[in-house]
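Q: What residues go here?
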């Protein structure tokens, strides 16, 4: 099976370098950048990746544009903060040239502030990443995008490592961007919210992650993550409420 890797990136040089280092089994690597000013170009050249430029269209449309730039039928869509482990790489290598499945999901293991999170609803976390682009594609959602397959989706063994938040500063910066986009997406769907509902949803998110999903078993990192996630929910719905008033 010939595989093209598709990545979107912006000002994520160190993470991009770690990601690209795990993709040498791919026949082609396409990096779609949004005018980064860091060392992205040099990193791509060092790893033999093809660098393209694009304006920001939202997560779903931008990722689909990266897929459209690929030459191979099978595409591995991977984020800059993700890495293919040796076990997952071996599972991909064992796939036949023309699988019956239209797409394959990987089990993603995420870290938060340097700690692996095995509960909180974060793990197991099956995400579709490898797919036949003639039978699958990204939706056009600006945030929380997904790959939709016209055919069966199978699972592969091995883990996809994910390091989305190395520092609290990163979490807060992403929270602000993501909640703004998520609120706008909900507003476009005709959703409405009041401040009381925002508070109720935030408290419900904390207790769901802390008790029902076992966040209390992830130590201090789990406690911080559950509180931070509750604030994410609060921010999203307060922004939705304010959009409704404007």
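A:
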């Amino acid at each position: 099976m010939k595989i093209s890797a598709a990545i979107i990136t912006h000002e994520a040089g160190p993470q991009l370098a770690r990601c690209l280092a795990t993709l040498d089994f791919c026949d082609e690597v396409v990096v779609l950048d949004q005018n980064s000013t860091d060392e992205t170009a040099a990193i791509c050249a060092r790893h033999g990746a093809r660098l393209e430029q694009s304006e920001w269209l939202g997560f779903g449309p931008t990722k689909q544009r990266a897929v459209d730039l690929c030459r191979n039928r099978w595409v591995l869509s991977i984020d800059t903060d993700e890495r293919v482990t040796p076990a997952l790489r071996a599972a991909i290598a064992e796939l036949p040239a023309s699988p019956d499945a239209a797409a394959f999901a990987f089990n993603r293991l995420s870290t938060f502030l340097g700690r692996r999170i095995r509960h909180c609803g974060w793990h197991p976390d099956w995400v579709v990443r490898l797919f036949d682009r003639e039978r699958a594609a990204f939706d056009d959602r600006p945030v929380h995008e997904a790959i939709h397959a016209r055919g069966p989706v199978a699972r592969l063994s091995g883990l996809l490592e994910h390091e989305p938040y190395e520092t609290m500063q990163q979490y807060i910066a992403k929270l602000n961007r993501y909640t703004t986009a998520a609120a706008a997406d909900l507003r476009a769907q005709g959703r409405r919210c009041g401040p009381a509902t925002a508070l109720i949803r935030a408290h419900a998110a904390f207790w769901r992650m802390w008790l029902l999903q076992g966040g209390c078993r992830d130590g201090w990192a789990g406690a911080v993550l559950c509180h931070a996630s509750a604030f994410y929910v609060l921010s999203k719905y307060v922004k939705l409420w304010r959009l409704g008033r404007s």
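A: Context that may help when evaluating the design: Residues 219-245 form the longest helix (27 residues). The chain is about 40% helix and 25% strand.
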